[in-house]
Design goal:
Number of helices: 12
CATH architecture: Alpha-Beta Barrel
Number of strands: 10
CATH superfamily: NADP-dependent oxidoreductase domain
GO molecular function: oxidoreductase activity
Pfam family, one: Aldo_ket_red
Keywords: Oxidoreductase
Shape: globular
Radius of gyration: 19 Å
Protein name: Aldo/keto reductase
Organism: Ramlibacter algicola
Number of domains: 1
Strand content: 5-15%
CATH topology: TIM Barrel
């Protein structure tokens, strides 16, 4: 794999990033460390986590993923110099009072969260520090519409960038990014950074997969023109695009209960649990089989080969899953197959947006 540059930063990463939100909930620490070891062995130099992880978020596991990674760094001191480490500060509470008091995300909250992540990760510097979701009211995580009546913003983007600047000046953060953002948000972060000499975002981490391609309706142009890189998460649609739910469904007696949608009711109640999302996934999965591909391989190759994507974040529970995801690198999709994918999208649009 050739390394790719993230935005205008000096960060150069592999086009596949190891996501870690399963560590501490579905993946025990020893298994997580084995996955981290294998990822490095296979050439991956990019790890993404968040203060909120593991997922589904709950008080008992808040910060668990970062702590697991921190203990891996402690056991493997040389590993820190081999990886680009990304983590995220949680946005406003969203029903998680254990993250912080109050409903907002102040500049001081950003600083405190970063310092907490540094302690748990047992590192001095975070390479890419991202805002997990906007502080202002936006449609995200399955919501479709912006409602100005719900606006409760307490901290301006300018103030958020000033907090990031403090962290950069103190050597705690190298570069910054955002996640679950809109075209407006990306434009504002870049505009204010350039206008006031504040840290410029290098990346946007948003969902992108066959059943959720909404970012192609404008956000991709924004990122291209402003030189901000996409980190695509959920390339397998929380497992929908592996085919494991095609026959069993997401909430039936034969549903795999070791997988995220099958195991966690909170996930089934969200965008990935929509009947329309499963129906669309079944069509894509069948298309893959008709072209001699495993569904997961086609779904991953779709992300791996799209011009919009700088690095695809893969989340795994086992070494076998990690190897399968990495082995899909290099798979090409024929023009005929891509046309068939687009035909399905035209008919079903983005049911897991």
């Amino acid at each position: 794999m050739n390394l790719v540059q993230l935005g205008t930063s000096d960060l150069r990463v592999t086009p596949i990033c190891l996501g870690t939100m399963t560590f501490g909930e579905q993946v025990a620490e020893a298994d997580a460390h084995a996955i981290l070891d294998r990822a490095l062995e296979r050439g991956i130099n990019f790890i993404d986590t968040a203060e909120m992880y593991s997922v589904p978020a709950r008080r008992e596991t808040y910060g668990a993923t970062e702590s697991i990674i921190g203990r891996w760094f402690a056991k493997n001191p040389s590993a820190r110099g081999k990886v680009v480490l990304a983590t995220k500060v949680a946005g406003p509470s969203r029903g998680m009072p254990w993250v912080r008091e109050g409903a907002g995300m102040t500049a001081q909250d950003i600083v405190r969260s970063c310092e907490g992540s540094l302690r748990r990760l047992q590192v001095d510097t975070i390479d890419l520090y991202q805002i997990h979701w906007p502080e202002r009211n936006t449609p995200m995580f399955g919501s479709l519409y912006y409602d100005p009546a719900k606006e409760r913003s307490q901290t301006s983007i300018h103030e958020q960038l000033e907090a990031m600047q403090r962290l950069v000046r103190e050597g705690k953060v190298r570069h910054v990014g955002v996640s679950n953002e809109t075209p407006y948000g990306v434009h504002e972060f870049v505009r204010l950074a350039e206008q006031h000499g504040l840290p410029r975002i290098a990346t946007v981490q948003n969902v992108y997969c066959l059943v959720s391609r909404f970012l192609e309706n404008g956000l991709d142009e924004t990122m291209k023109r402003l030189d901000v890189s996409l980190l695509a998460y959920s390339p397998l649609g929380f497992g929908l695009l592996t085919g494991k739910y095609d026959e069993a469904g997401i909430d039936g007696p034969q549903t795999p209960r070791d997988a995220r949608i099958g195991k966690f009711e909170s996930v089934r109640g969200g965008r990935w649990g929509r009947p329309e999302a499963l129906a669309a996934a079944r069509r894509y999965n069948q298309l893959a089989r008709e072209h001699g591909l495993a569904p997961a391989r086609m779904a991953l190759a779709f992300c791996y080969t799209k011009w919009q994507v700088a690095s695809t974040i893969i989340g795994v529970r086992t070494l076998a899953q990690l190897d399968e995801n990495l082995d899909a690198w290099g798979t090409t999709l024929s023009p005929e197959l891509l046309a068939a994918i687009d035909k399905i999208r035209w008919e079903v649009r983005d049911p897991a947006n």
